[in-house]
Amino acid sequence: MFLGHFAVGFASKKFAPRTNRGVLIAAPMFLDMLWPVFLLTGWERVRIDPGNTRFTPLDLEYFPWSHSLLMSVVWASAFGLLYYLTTRYRRGAVVIWIGVVSHWLLDWITHRPDMPLYPGSPLFGLGLWNHVGATLAVELTMFLLGIWLYVGVTRARDRVGRYGFLAYVVLLLVLYLGDRFSSPPANVAQDIAWPGIVAELVLIPWAWWFDQHRALRAEMGEAVI
């Protein structure tokens, strides 16, 4: 899942309005931020296997340190605690914790049985990725709902808040659809791990940037959805 994780980050602003959008998107994406690093170190493995599922050509052979349910709870607790110690904003810390753990739940829905509960556990997955139309419908619906909630809570202060946000949304859609309908990658490091790291280094600061240029509607005396 890709857009679904970003949808959680957008929607989270409604429940933790004082937390910057960059942090809120980093939470549901955090496991995928760890994954390419762990691929490059050899701690985890993925194999390019066209036809593995109808939606993605990747065989996620081994990734318990970034994507098991147990480790997602560990990473969520570390992220949430660090955020709380830095900001003393309890609601934000709770929303961040939920955001990190939501990644496992959404991947469990989309993946074939490759999601571990803990390192060495049996593997689980409902296999939504075997149904292309359903996958697109679910992720796009989640994404639109997340954007709707975010826009219901915030309002652009200036052009950056408006057009920086709109460009971000368009880029995510282009990346999502482009990845789905492109040829399978040829090399794990060059086509998966390093592009994933670069994308994170762009998308998280970008979200932080445009969110700084958006005001909470409640602070402006407007009704919040």
Automatic annotation (TrEMBL):
Bilayer-crossing regions: 23-43, 63-85, 92-111, 131-153, 160-177, 192-210
Pfam families to which the protein is assigned, alphabetical: YdjM
An annotated Gene Ontology molecular function: hydrolase activity
Domain of life (superkingdom): Bacteria
The entry's keywords: Hydrolase, Membrane, Transmembrane, Transmembrane helix
InterPro entries assigned: YdjM-like (IPR007404)
Name under which the protein is recorded: Metal-dependent hydrolase
Organism encoding this protein: Tunturiibacter gelidiferens
Species lineage: Bacteria, Pseudomonadati, Acidobacteriota, Terriglobia, Terriglobales
